[in-house]
Design a protein that fits this description.
The chain is built from 16 helices and eight strands. By secondary structure, it is α/β, with parallel strands linked by helices. It has an eight-stranded parallel sheet with strand order 1-8-7-6-5-4-3-2.
């Protein structure tokens, strides 16, 4: 396989910016996925899966807060609605080295609603403001809010304006807006990502009304062409499903959206750059099937991509599966391209 031309083993510190981010995705953006994303982009701001205050206060906080230094810049997303609990958790996050803490006010699942956090908090803007104020008082890192354009029948501009203005009074200056409303009853979380109409226009209008705030858009962004177009009027874009359905889209982010001078890394180089990390994780007992989950989409849409995924599926689940499985999948795929002998 080719020599890695993008040296990411010890990347220089990159200041966190919201110009381009990857979304917090439950059961997806774990530390292995984030390390993989970072092989392709130095500049993107990465987000963890949502972690609840209860998990940090009463669970294995070291496991929930763990990350590799090379994942930075990195933001922790928290779920909760108790100001004091959130304040305690943001102290942990800052101490652990996170660059930002984000409050989840967008998840519509029943479990989240039962815990009185997520999208249902849009109906309680004063509570959200109290949470943000308590968090900001206890830390120096930014505290941001990720939310929707509305909930149920409360989905007009006036409702969104009241929410944003109330929370902004607590000192929050960055809002990540999923450009769909959430139905709190009747739709599953998956359906809430697809069925409510996508309304980028609502987010664009919000930015016009709140020019002093940083507004980042999320939802329905599938290409960097779309991202570039939206950045003409907004402060940032957040990529969700496209980042795991077609991970290699991240390889062009630094050059196209940040003007980086370093070369775009190839898919084969991405795999080579992952090998030392995977070897260490395997030595610590992590199963290969867990480690390579985010890599399945690396050759999405490319000749040989199906062969790559099939090889990983058929051989990666074995208990004794090692690096040779990934290396052989890449060799077979790269041979299909005619890039290797």
């Amino acid at each position: 396989m080719p020599t890695n031309t993008l040296k990411l083993t010890s990347p220089p510190p990159i200041p966190a910016t919201h110009r381009f981010c990857t979304a917090p995705m439950l059961d997806w953006t774990d530390r292995h996925c984030r390390y993989f994303f970072r092989r392709m982009t130095r500049k993107a701001l990465l987000y963890t899966e949502m972690v609840t205050t209860g998990a940090l206060l009463h669970g294995d906080r070291e496991r929930f807060l763990a990350f590799h230094p090379e994942e930075k810049p990195l933001a922790l997303q928290l779920g909760g609605s108790d100001p004091e609990a959130l304040a305690r958790c943001v102290v942990m996050a800052e101490s652990a080295g996170y660059d930002e803490v984000n409050l989840n006010v967008g998840c519509p699942s029943d479990r989240v609603q039962n815990g009185r956090f997520g999208a249902c908090l849009m109906a309680e803007p004063k509570r959200v403001a109290e949470c943000v104020a308590a968090m900001r008082e206890r830390c120096q890192i930014p505290v941001t809010v990720k939310t929707r354009i509305g909930i149920d029948t409360q989905d007009d501009d006036a409702f969104l304006d009241r929410f944003v203005s109330t929370v902004a009074e607590s000192g929050c200056d960055t809002f990540i807006i999923h450009a769909r409303k959430a139905w709190l009853n009747g739709l599953s979380p998956k359906e809430n990502r697809d069925i409510p109409p996508l309304r980028h226009d609502r987010v664009l209008r919000l930015k016009q009304r709140f020019g002093d705030l940083r507004v980042v858009i999320n939802g329905g962004i599938d290409t960097l062409d779309q991202a570039e177009a939206l950045l003409a009027d907004l402060d940032g874009v957040m990529l969700g499903r496209a980042a795991y359905q077609n991970a290699y889209i991240l390889a062009d982010v630094d050059q196209r959206l940040f003007g980086a001078a370093w070369p775009v890394i190839s898919r084969a180089e991405v795999i080579e750059a992952m090998l030392p990390y995977l070897a260490k994780e395997l030595a610590h007992g992590t199963r290969l099937s867990t480690l390579i989950k985010p890599l399945f989409s690396l050759y999405h849409g490319q000749p040989g991509g199906r062969r790559f995924r099939r090889w990983l599926s058929e051989h990666g689940h074995r208990r004794d599966a090692g690096l040779d499985v990934l290396q052989e999948a890449a060799r077979l795929t790269e041979t299909t391209y005619g890039l290797t002998d």
